[in-house]
Amino acid sequence: MMCSCAKTISPFDKSWIIKVDGEKVSSEIYSYYVYSAYEMYSYYGLIDPAVSLKKQYITLDGGEGKETRKRADKQINEYALDKTVSLYYLQKQYEQSGLVTDEQTAAQLKEVAAYEYDAYRAMFEKNGISEETVLLAGAGGMATQMAEELFIKDTADIPEQEILDYYHENYVSYAYVSQKMLDEGGIPLDDSDKDVYRKELAEVAEKVKTGSVDISDLALEYIKDASADPKCGKGGKNISTVEWGESDLMSELKNMAPGEVKYVEIKNCGYVIKRFDLDQNGFYSDEGNRLLVLKNMKYDDWSENFYKNLSDLSYTLNVSAYNKHGINNFKSEDDGK
Question: For the chain, how far is it from start to end, CA to CA, in angstroms?
Fold first, then answer.
């Protein structure tokens, strides 16, 4: 299990799954995550719905190059419990922060939950899972929204200049056009054949430098071209962190000044690249993009701290509810597995 929490066996009670400082958490949340785990492992082909879960094993990455192998039904129940505890902790952090989800977001989340509930109504009802539970625990639902809002609030004290400095150090804005220098069989062309493409690209580079051709427009034309080669890209316009994308291309961009145009050959592809001034593209001025920058900058640290505190959480487990509402007693629409 994810949480190394202090657990004790509690009295028989069907209505709750865990208790923290006297506060009980409904078994409905656990039931929903049991269903969610079953669907997830089925989707990724880790379990066979036609075979008893007690006869199957799920192997997962245990971190540090190690693997964990557990019987499928036990893995599903443990995953569901971990998600339940995580959601409880997230709720508490959200409440204590004083955050309130705005009406528009709440309405959108409710619409998503209603859609999911209607799609699986019979199964949810057979397992005592309400639409409110689906809203709270559902994928893409309230939990995701709460985590994002908590992150934004917890990073509110970071100076704006610090975020801007990170943005300028780690992001690059560029456009390019390219040409594959391989034959139809994937064999590199002879130099004489490559020279034909080199001449064409050199002419493109010169036109871009003089301003007679806008490389951004040219790149978009290449992208729309149905004959564009996906291995070489043909053309593209992008804003990305220097750690992302094709590393050799990013290495070239790191060494280019804003406004510079350059021809390079990388892995049998010829590129005409132009780097732009980040402050001219308006990317950072969009609040959604600014949040993406902030997440790249701080989300790993925030998440690590969040889960460390979560791992210290102690709770009482209702073992009877854990088993009763586990996957082996879960009812599908046809009452089978």
Answer: 24
Question: Which element (helix H / strand E) includes 262?
Answer: strand 261-266
- pLDDT single digits (tens) 127-170: 999 999 999 887 667 888 899 999 999 999 999 999 999 998 88
For 79-131, the pLDDT digits (tens) are 999 999 999 999 999 999 998 888 898 888 899 999 999 999 999 999 999 99
Q: What is the pLDDT of residue 52?
A: 94
pTM: predicted TM-score of the whole model, two decimal places: 0.72
Strand 171-180, strand 269-276: pairing: antiparallel
Statement: residue 76 has pLDDT above 60: yes
Specify the DSSP element, H or E, that contains 132: helix 131-137
CB of 278 within 8 A of CB of 284? yes
Q: How many Cα atoms occupy the beta-carbon half-sphere of 334 within 13 Å? A: 2
CATH number of the structural domain 164-280: 3.10.50.40
Note whether 155 and 299 are within 8 A (CB).
no
175 - beta bridge partners? Answer: 237, 274
User: To 10 degrees, what angle do helices 72-97 and 27-43 make?
Assistant: 130
User: 177 forms bridges with which residues in the sheet?
Assistant: 235, 272
Q: 97 is written with which tokens?
A: 């922060």
The secondary structure of residue 25, as a DSSP letter, is: E
Nearest in space to 307 (alpha carbons), one of 46, 70, 85, 56? 85
Range list for CATH 3.10.50.40 in the chain: 164-280
